[in-house]
Amino acid sequence: MAKSIAQRVDNQVKEKLVVSFAKKLLDIPSFKTEETRIARFLARFFKGRGYEVDLQEVDPGRYQVIATLKGSGGGKSLMLNGHIDMDPLSMGWKRDPWTSTVEGDRLYGAGIYNMKGGITSIVMAAEALRKAKAPLKGDLMVACVVGELQGGIGTVHALEQGYRPDMAIVAEPNGQDSVLTVHAGWLEMAINVIGESRHISQKESGVNAIQKMAKVISTINNLSLTHPPYPALPALPRLHVGAVIGGQGRNHVINGPNFVPDFCTALVDGRMVPGQTSDMVLADVRRALDGIKEEDPQFDYEIEYPPPAEYKVLRVTMEPMDMPTDEYIVQAVTRSYEAVTGGKLAYIGTKLPNSYSGNDTTHMWKAGIPCVLYGPGGGWDESEEEPDAYIRISDMVTCARVIASTALEVCNQDA
């Protein structure tokens, strides 16, 4: 009987439906802080299919959606988690990023890799269980959250609102043959350099904040950070200056280039290894900037951590995660993968370069919820020197099947 139910669920995952749903997501731009339109689309989708739907207002006018297939009672609960905010677009796309394109096993489009492909897999997994009328004792939650690219503010909000599943799967794009339990920590900060403005005719008596920032950039990019050894992530820890803006005053007014700029801001991204903390990184940065100040009495700085909201960057720090691979959820996904594909996972625990990224598992693990990263893979057309992003269609299908099988097992475990 159990085998027939599993087969019935598996049969509901159809490639045509997977691609069609992914294309609908691609039709809706959802840059970070601009996710409400896609959240409302998903809310309508779930409501029309009988899910319990919670459309959550995370910030004023900014919504995310959590849909639940209610269990009959007495079972473990499972959250399928994915973020609906998408990365900014790079220049140089060969294809129209706003027109979904299928080429062989690849589906191209803005936001498909990170992570509308993963959203597709978790939604299609839940739909397979619903359409198959699979019995579930525990609740199955599908959390389509905002602001993962800002540190996970949507998942943090869901946890604060009482969504505390027994286990979770986060469908980040690591590949259908990979279950990750290790990822880097992620923090961001704003470093401000404060100068003194003068007219160009008197610039020698001013302090040019942009010129002083050049010292900061060199120092940050070459800074050795304090950390315990962690050979599994050999490229970390590291810091990176990813944006700089300077001008007049704290609003960086740039329409007065005839004056010495008195304020300059650099946005710094950092990646940490397990055993290292954000406090350790901040202490290292302050020591380095204080060193510049000792050598240059005109150098004045301040650090804003987290950065101000107007920059739309990280508002919450993601600390590093290293969860034991013997956790039940890891083994459940492994069993499901083998049952669905007949093969063995290529990666369990760490995968490079994927584990160099932070993600929402950190917040759930901190809250005591065992969780894994398992989602469809893809990438960019690097061989063509183009930034066009894609997801592998076969990965979306396989991940939906594996996640549905995992949910069938987990949600029927006694609580």
Task: Describe how the helices and strands are arranged.
Elements: H1 2-11, H2 15-26, H3 36-47, E1 52-59, E2 62-69, E3 78-83, E4 101-103, E5 106-108, H4 112-131, E6 140-145, H5 153-160, E7 167-170, E8 178-180, E9 182-183, E10 185-194, H6 209-221, E11 238-247, E12 263-272, H7 278-295, E13 301-304, E14 321-322, H8 328-341, E15 347-349, H9 361-366, E16 371-373, E17 378-380, E18 389-392, H10 393-410
Helix pairs in contact: 1-4, 2-4, 4-10, 6-7, 8-10
Short note summarizing the structure:
With 415 residues, this protein is of the alpha+beta class.
Secondary-structure-based class equals: alpha+beta
The share of residues in helices is 25-40%
Most strands sheet: 6 strands, mixed
CATH fold topology of the largest domain: Aminopeptidase
Give the strand content: 15-25%
CATH class of the largest domain, named Alpha Beta
The tally of helices reads 10
General description of the model:
With 415 residues, this protein is α+β, with helices and mostly antiparallel strands. The chain folds into two domains: 2-183 and 320-410, 3-Layer(aba) Sandwich (Aminopeptidase); 185-311, 2-Layer Sandwich (Alpha-Beta Plaits), CATH 3.30.70. The protein is 32% helix and 22% strand. The protein contains ten helices and 18 strands. It has helices at residues 2-11, 15-26, 36-47, 112-131, 153-160, 209-221, 278-295, 328-341, 361-366, 393-410; strands at residues 52-59, 62-69, 78-83, 101-103, 106-108, 140-145, 167-170, 178-180, 182-183, 185-194, 238-247, 263-272, 301-304, 321-322, 347-349, 371-373, 378-380, 389-392. The strands form five sheets. Strands 1-2-6-3-7-16 form a six-stranded mixed β-sheet, with helices on both faces. Strands 4-5-18-17 form a four-stranded antiparallel β-sheet. A hairpin with a 2-residue loop joins strand 1 (52-59) and strand 2 (62-69). Helix 2 packs across helix 4 (112-131). The longest helix has 20 residues, at 112-131. The model has no long low-confidence stretch (mean pLDDT 96).
